[in-house]
Amino acid sequence: MASTKVYLEIVKQLREMITNDGLKTGDKIPSERELSERLNFGRSSVREALRALELLGLIETRRGEGTYIRDFRGHQLVQLLSTFILQDQKAKRDVFETKNYIEMDCLHLVLQKADNQKINKFRDWVKNTEPFSDDDFFQKMMELSDNHLFLRLWSILKEYYHSLEENLPAFKREHYLILLNALAEKDLEKTLSAYRKLRNLSNSTDKY
């Protein structure tokens, strides 16, 4: 337990250091010795933290050159955070709840922006696509909402959700078609009702 706390503290301070120093992907970070002095941790603890971060693909060591920052936006970071930070049940519920709200907000935008031609094309895709998945459905829905921030936020939360839940629920294709039919009718109440049924949510989740 103590070693985990040390690891987390080193990761936290490394992140703060990267932010404060204005470092970005591709930039070199200080040496193991410099980090030990700057972060006030033993070199062995810093070495273990760096090794773990490298295994996760967050940094890379180039022989004879040093250690460099890799892209922090990948799935490896999601796994790191979910493993060490999102272990309590409330945090898991927060991820699930926030993901649901973003999906509902997305549906609200689609009602405003998408015409029946696009929704009919989407319906045909749902009927004919094999294999069909919930992630693919809402990925397309986010794209249809034409809001890139929603798409980015949803994608991150989706990765958290998958890393937290081992047994993902199975959904019936007919429920997605019912949702699309409600969208085609431009009926907000029916759309949100169909969404709640798909996600097996109570009416209290609806904020509209």
Form type: elongated
Helical proportion?
55-70%
* Elements, N to C (H/E): HEHHEEHHHHHHH
Query: Biggest sheet, strands in spatial order?
Result: 1-3-2
Mean pLDDT metric:
82
**Which residues form runs of ≥5 with pLDDT under 50?**
204-208
Give the terminus-to-terminus CA distance: 44 Å
Main structural class = mainly alpha
Strand content: under 5%
Oligomer state of the chains in this structure: single chain
Largest beta-sheet details = 3 strands, antiparallel
Radius of gyration: 22 Å
DSSP helix count? 10
Please provide the count of β strands.
3
Characterization of the model:
The structure is a single chain. With about 210 residues, the protein is mainly α. It has two domains: about 1-70, Arc Repressor Mutant, subunit A, CATH 1.10.10.10; about 90-205, Up-down Bundle (Four Helix Bundle (Hemerythrin (Met), subunit A)). Helices cover about 70% and strands about 5% of the residues. The protein has ten helices and three strands, in the order αβααββααααααα. Helix 5 (about 90-115) crosses helix 7 (about 135-145), helix 5 runs antiparallel to helix 8 (about 150-165) and helix 6 (about 115-130) packs antiparallel against helix 9. It is elongated, with a radius of gyration of 22 Å.
